[in-house]
Write a structure and sequence with these properties.
The structure holds 3 protein chains of 3 kinds. Chain B is α/β, with parallel strands linked by helices. Chain B has helices at 16-29, 54-68, 79-94, 96-105, 121-129, 131-137, 170-177, 196-199, 201-217, 228-236, 238-244, 256-263, 278-286; strands at residues 3-5, 34-35, 73-76, 117-120, 146-149, 181-182, 222-225, 253-255. The chains are: A alpha+beta, B alpha/beta, C mainly alpha.
Chain lengths: 250, 295, 136
Amino acid sequence: MDTATLTEEVAAKTIPIYIMGKRYEVPETLTIMKAMEHSGYQYIRGCGCRGGICGACATVYRKAGDYKIYTGLACQTVVEPEMYLTQIPFYPANRASYDFESAKPTAETIYELYPELFRCVACNSCTKVCPMDVEVLDYISALKRGDITAAAEISFDCIQCGLCASRCMGEMAQYHMAQVARRIQGGKIAPKAEHLEKMCGDIDAGTFTDVLEAAKVMTEDELKKVYTEREMEPHMGADEWAPASNHGLA
Amino acid sequence: MKLGYYPGCTLKTKAANLEKAAMASLDHLGVEYKELSRWNCCGAVFSLTDDDLIHQVAPVRNLIRAAQEGCDTVVTICSQCYNTLARANKLVRDDEEKRDTLNRFMDEEPDYNGEVEVVHYLSLLRDQVGWEKLREAVTNPLDGLKVAPFYGCTLVRPEEVAIDAVDQEILEGFIAALGADPAAFSAARECCGSYQMIAHPEEGMNRAAKVIGAANRSEADALILSCPMCEYNLGTRQGDVVAAHDGLSQVPTYYFTQLLGVALGLDPELCRLDLNGPAAQELFVDKNFIAAATV
Amino acid sequence: MASIPSPIHPENLKAVNKIAELSGQNVHECMQCGTCSAVCPMVESMGFTTRMGIHYLQFGEIEPVIKAQIGEYCASCHTCVVRCPRGIDVPKVFEAVRQLVLRTNTDLIKPQEIPKDTMAEAPQIAFVSTFRKLTS
């Protein structure tokens, strides 16, 4: 354990926290995840990227003397004195099966897959609990009024942690509905990136074959040289900057 | 009056034929309004249990949004939304304890104390524009169109939110101002079956059949509706209803706002008559209210 | 003052009071005129009429009213309340009966069983109102 090697001068001050009802003294600078591991818990579930983006480590906690429910990601949230916490590794959520290819690009697809969407009572418990500050009620409202694009945009930051579903009075799994909306938006509504398609076509047509073959036989130093000497967009470049040469980019 | 417009879930997609002509008509008549930029579903039905407050949250939250956007009045077209918002508003205004609890629960929103007035589109037309001014603005009078005015339930009951009393006949006044002829229609204020069409389809269709039957007996050319639930039961499902009940004949249905749009001479395509089925357009072409059926 | 023996069993009195608490209505004010049944658009689908339903409730007999599915077939049209000569808020009374069932975490209809083409075709208010009235 780290703290065993720290001298008193450099050891962080410890604070009491309660993990699933049991009291522990943990260094105050640790995140919930680190604090639990410091206390002897080993994560085999409810832990993932440790970087705040995978949604695996959703945590619900309260503070002493405070009725409110707080949430956060265990890997991102720093411990507080008298924090009462518990981890939610996975909250059961209804997830419908569907064939994306044949799904209509309208909200009706979601109505058919998730009729419980209409059980929303606008209590806003979902929004209050979201660790990513997504306006969950706003995207559910958008879905109810048929606006897939707005729902996709509003739910963009969702990391599928499931906390919204855990608090929902209508027993919905909001994040699954939003994912369908984002898939439909990206795959069927948003205009295709034509330049991407063209680029892939150029690659298949062999435009870059010579460049790639040459790079394959370069030494590390030669590669570094080519890389560092490449033409780059200036760090504080003007909006109208364009590369001098397209190197085969049409 | 700083007027906000609350669309509700249905008007943006399924009931585009109710909304588009409505808002274009307001513009045409010079009534200023601002569509609320942020709103949620109002819940469609007013919760009737005294201890239940969670189902009041949805409509009250919308009134908070209206207040946040500087509106002192909010107009809505969907009958169910009107009823729910108006009754929730009254609850908040009348019951201090419930108002306090709601405000405490919605601690992420500013407090609401009943500052916003809720009106229905028809009341707005009657009170802000008036039937005389409306009649003057009509360039394409619907002469010779005999219309069965269907109020449904939620615009006229309970009395605390009714947009008119039975003897005031707001819809008949509206229809007459457009140059059309309101028929004597026994089922005008009866129920279309409402959500029973979803919950118990056979019983829902039985109810709808009674309304269609009354419309047939009134010898009206058309049945006018004001609510997307009524339009679904009496319009979209009319084919099923007529097929399942002897002695009924089909009658075209329109939203009152579509009549308004056509009578004011607005672009028929805007009125989305195409969403009402072919018979609706054919009737208007026959009567020379529109030049040709829109796609 | 001598007390009048009540024909209502104490257990049933509790039930009457529960209905009163949820609805704010006193079912004993009903004089059984039958107007509510006469105007009810869904009465033919119910096991017995709304008038009979109120009569049962006056005796605290809630189970028969639940079995008659009065609350389930009610369309919340509110014609009964505007016609009731005693001004009883009948929709609230039957909403209370409905809630007594719903609050046991029992759905009166199943959203998953609604045909898919209905889900795609009907207006959103149809589902919002159905689920608010008939699911828990």
